[in-house]
């Protein structure tokens, strides 16, 4: 069972709301740090293990700085994310650039920062050479196709746009070798929000075996294997956390059996987790604006899917706590909605909650990854602030809320007067 606890009391959150109006996201620094340390320790058997935090999950430089202090690097996939890493003080081989359908300018930036470049396709090698020059270290992203089955978030590997086939990998590394590149890594990402440790062990076995095959055939040496992200979190209270110890133990066994036994050690293990690192430690805090009773009961919040899109996008479950009503019977079914003119703007459908009143403070759990980050401005909705609950109990604003001026910033209303229609 995943207990849905909160790092603040009703009184504390009321005090925070006095200063920062709802809706906002708030992150728990202490929990993030402890989780980061535990994650790192789980793989301490592998010298050189490194987690590159997937910036897209929660692109906030304050959180990235905290994670960098815990020795995490940054996994970037766009120009803005590369610049964010740079501005946070993360450069060189502490950046993994795992992009796809990549524009030239992004390869140029990645090369400028000396980031590790993970190529999504065989043809990107020539494209990279033409536009940004070749680095001394190259990684390719492997798509195992029918060897693995995916899920609703990531899709089936064969349908997925990512990565190279096995045959293309051999060709890719061989071409690199011919071009004088002599440092290599390999990457794959076939899961998203996966809670079964065995799934990652199986992926490790496939990847290690592939490394052994390529190394032997091409007489090249791999420096690292990057399992990317996809480690899940228990969104539902009746789900269990992934058994990280079992996952690490299983990967270690495969490592010894395949990598070490073939004299290919040491190889560093890299990960690019986002969700697992910050997901459970971020909360979307909102208030009930209106209660509506028609064919169903609706609780309208001051937040919308612009603040957290996962329920609307994937039908994802996010646990909801009504502050101060935790102990009351949860016996009224509500659709918990936002204000977007889209009927799928619902945080929950037919959710049993205590009887709600306008003004109730609603906390939506597990919004610390792929939450604020997915925010958008459709319907003129503005993205909320991000707050950080520090270890000493202080709260700092790490991103202000958008204003209507931000929304209008790309429009020139002065031009309207002279615009004849
Ligand atoms: C999205 C993504 C991640 C992070 O995924 P999580 O589910 O947040 O762990 C890591 N690597 C790549 C290449 C991604 O696209």
What's the tally of helices?
13
State the distance separating the first and last CA atoms: 63 Å
The portion of residues assigned to helices is 25-40%
Rounded mean pLDDT is 96
Give the overall shape, derived from the CA principal axes. globular
What summary fits the major beta sheet?
9 strands, mixed
The CATH architecture assignment of the largest domain turns out to be: Alpha-Beta Barrel
Tell me what you see in this structure:
- With about 425 residues, this protein is of the alpha/beta class.
- It has 2 domains: about 30-280, TIM Barrel; about 280-405, Lyase, Ornithine Decarboxylase, Chain A, domain 1, CATH 2.40.37.
- It has helices spanning about 10-20, 30-40, 60-70, 80-90, 105-110, 125-130, 165-180, 195-220, 245-260, 275-280, 310-315, 405-410, 415; strands at about 25-30, 50-55, 75, 95-100, 115-120, 135-140, 185-190, 220-225, 270, 280-295, 295-300, 320, 330-335, 345-355, 360-365, 385-390, 395-400.
- The strands form 2 sheets. Strands 1, 10, 11, 12, 13, 14, 15, 16 and 17 form a 9-stranded mixed beta sheet that branches.
- α7 (about 165-180) crosses α8 and α8 (about 195-220) packs parallel to α9 (about 245-260).
- The longest helix has 22 residues, at about 195-220.
- Pyridoxal-5'-phosphate binds near residues 57, 75, 98 and 272.
In brief:
The chain is an alpha/beta fold and 421 residues long.
Give keywords.
421 residues; alpha/beta; TIM Barrel; Lyase, Ornithine Decarboxylase, Chain A, domain 1; 2 domains; 9-stranded mixed β-sheet; 8-stranded parallel β-barrel; binds pyridoxal-5'-phosphate
């Amino acid at each position: 069972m995943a207990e849905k606890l909160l790092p603040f009391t009703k009184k504390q959150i009321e005090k925070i709301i006095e200063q920062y109006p709802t809706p906002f996201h708030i992150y728990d620094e202490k929990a993030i740090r402890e989780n980061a340390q535990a994650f790192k320790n789980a793989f301490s058997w592998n010298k050189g293990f490194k987690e590159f935090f997937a910036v897209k999950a929660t692109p906030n430089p304050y959180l990235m700085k905290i994670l960098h202090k815990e020795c995490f690097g940054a996994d970037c996939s766009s120009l803005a994310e590369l610049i964010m890493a740079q501005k946070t003080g993360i450069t060189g081989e502490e950046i993994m650039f795992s992009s796809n359908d990549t524009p030239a300018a992004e390869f140029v930036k990645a090369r400028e920062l000396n980031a590790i470049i993970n190529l999504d396709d065989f043809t990107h090698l020539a494209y990279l050479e033409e536009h940004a020059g070749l680095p001394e270290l190259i990684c390719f992203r492997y798509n195992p196709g029918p060897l693995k089955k995916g899920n609703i978030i990531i899709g089936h590997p064969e349908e997925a746009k990512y990565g190279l086939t096995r045959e293309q990998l051999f060709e890719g590394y061989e071409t690199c070798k011919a071009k004088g590149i002599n440092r290599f890594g390999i990457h794959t990402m076939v899961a998203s929000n996966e809670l079964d440790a065995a799934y990652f062990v199986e992926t490790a076995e496939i990847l290690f075996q592939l490394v052994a095959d390529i190394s032997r055939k091409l007489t090249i040496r791999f420096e690292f294997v990057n399992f990317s992200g996809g480690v899940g979190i228990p969104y539902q209270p009746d789900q269990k956390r992934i058994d990280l110890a079992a996952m690490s133990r299983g990967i270690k066994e495969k490592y010894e059996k395949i990598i070490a036994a073939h004299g290919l050690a040491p190889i560093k293990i890299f990960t690019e987790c986002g969700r697992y690192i910050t997901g459970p430690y971020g909360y979307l805090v909102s208030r009930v604006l209106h209660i509506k009773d028609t064919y169903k009961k609706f609780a309208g919040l001051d937040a919308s899917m612009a603040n957290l899109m996962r329920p609307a996008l994937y039908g994802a479950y996010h646990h909801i706590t009504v502050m101060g009503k935790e102990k009351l019977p949860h016996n009224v079914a509500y659709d918990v909605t936002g204000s977007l003119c889209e009927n799928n703007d619902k945080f929950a459908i037919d959710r049993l909650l205590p009887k709600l009143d306008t003004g109730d403070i609603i906390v939506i759990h597990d919004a610390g990854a792929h939450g604020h980050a997915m925010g958008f401005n459709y319907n003129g909705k503005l993205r909320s602030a991000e707050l950080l609950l520090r270890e000493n109990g202080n709260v700092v604003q790490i991103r202000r809320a958008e204003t209507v001026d931000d929304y209008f910033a790309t429009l020139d209303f002065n031009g309207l007067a002279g615009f004849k229609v």
